Amino acid sequence: MKTIGITGQNGFVGNHLFTTLSLDENIKLIPFKRSYFESTAELENFVKQCDTVVHLSAMNRHDDPQVIYDTNIKLVDQLIAACTNQEHYPHILFSSSTQESKDNLYGKSKKEGKLKLIEWAKNGNGKFTSLTIPNVFGPFGKPNYNSVVATFCHKVANGEEPEIINDGEVGLIYINELVALIIESITSDKGKNKIGNNSFELEIAPTSKNKVSKLLSLILEYRKNYMENGIFPNLEDDFEKALFNTFRCYVPVNHYPVKYTKHTDPRGSFVEIAKTQTSGQFSFSTTVPGITRGNHFHTRKAERFAVISGKALIQLRKIGTDEVIDYYLDGKEPAYVDMPIWYTHNIKNIGEEELITLFWINEPFDPENADTYFVNV
């Protein structure tokens, strides 16, 4: 079994990498805490357990650029020293940046950190891979920090109007795509250039390029069509599906449950469940009192639970956290809740009668590629 540790495992990329690797039963993850860089003993104990270290810890924002440079160089020095002191030689993957070719102290810290790790690999038995990473976007990115997508999604979903300062073209890679490349780089040198003895480099290209105004236009459409009218957008384009899944993670928790309009006449009632610009799969279930269904999550699928009869408790919990979100629905006022990706979810019949729930998901079920991972809420 391969052992992998991730410095910066609680950051944006680190968290996605950690949770994705946790789905692989052939990998043992070595937990990392930021405080390890303040304790030589704890850092050395961490590295000696790892076959592979993915070094993501870094600073990329501070009022004083010199602090950024000093911090990032120190983190590399500490990591090298821990490996050297333990006479342990893991495969170290290092997150560099396209900024390393530019004349700023952040880029300089990445370039010099890479050179230090090349020298470490050259003089020992370790292996080094530098990953040059473009702008990344995806769910759970920090708004108002260094991602225009995270900032736009957060502002639009919360009723604000973002401002375009420079309508340039932005090259982006979706977090799921980046994580897949990092995992491939752990075991394979495919696509890498050799840059030294035991050292390699993978220059990761953006998978999409859009003007800033195009990004904002799409996100504003999500607010109008999805949040205001409950209409799922066309999810056939990979980039737009990724952007929509990112947007959904910024929709406020109290947006749900969304009540349906119930059209009633002497014949009975009619309720429109979901309008979509794609097809997907519609289904329904009946559940006897006291029974809970689900307890699973998806990494790419968009899904809606609609309660039309009976009483239900729908629960969600983001993977890697303890906070549980509870939604109480009653078929007397039909309503729905949409499931964000990376949130395990379930539905329980909390009434005394049969619960009837309708489901829509954007992909027909494929047992060979189900994208369904079972974890209790």
UniProtKB/TrEMBL annotation:
Gene3D superfamilies: Jelly Rolls, NAD(P)-binding Rossmann-like Domain
Domain of life: Bacteria
Protein name per its UniProtKB record: Epimerase
InterPro entries in the record: CapF_C, Epimerase_deHydtase, Lipid_A_modif_metabolic_enz, NAD(P)-bd_dom_sf, RmlC-like_jellyroll, RmlC_Cupin_sf
Capsular polysaccharide assembling protein CapF C-terminal domain residues: 263-373
CDD domains assigned: cupin_CapF-like_C
GO biological process: glycolytic process
Residue intervals of the NAD-dependent epimerase/dehydratase domain: 6-188
